[in-house]
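Hey L., structure's done. Input below.
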Amino acid sequence: MTGIPTAGSIVVADLIGDAVVRIPAGATVADAARVLVDAGVGAVVVGDDARPAAVLSERDVVRVVSEGRNPADVPVAEVASTNLVWCEDTDSVDAVATRMTDRYIRHILVENGGELAGIVSARDLLGVYAGDADAVDA
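Output:
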């Protein structure tokens, strides 16, 4: 026994790094797309509430473009996801990965004490599992 936890048993609080990127509720999809690119993230929280009601992702931006709509004319509030999926910051990577897979989502909001603590992406989880696989191969 090495005492090193497996990837799946790591708590998601350990994956939360940078502050959550936010955009104003009155922003357009074009504004949000610029923020996504500038911040290098795949999703942004809409508004400043401690417990947000909407998130806009890259998929939402692509959907607007694929419909032939002008992103500069579409308010984020019109297309942002409001059916948000949350996890606790103490949940394991395995539990969160299962929840995300079951719901077909790429981002999950992480809460601590009822407030937003961060966002974990499928890419974050993949990095944990890839690191675990590398350790096994070494």
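The chain has a mean pLDDT of 90. The chain has one domain: 9-135.

-- N.
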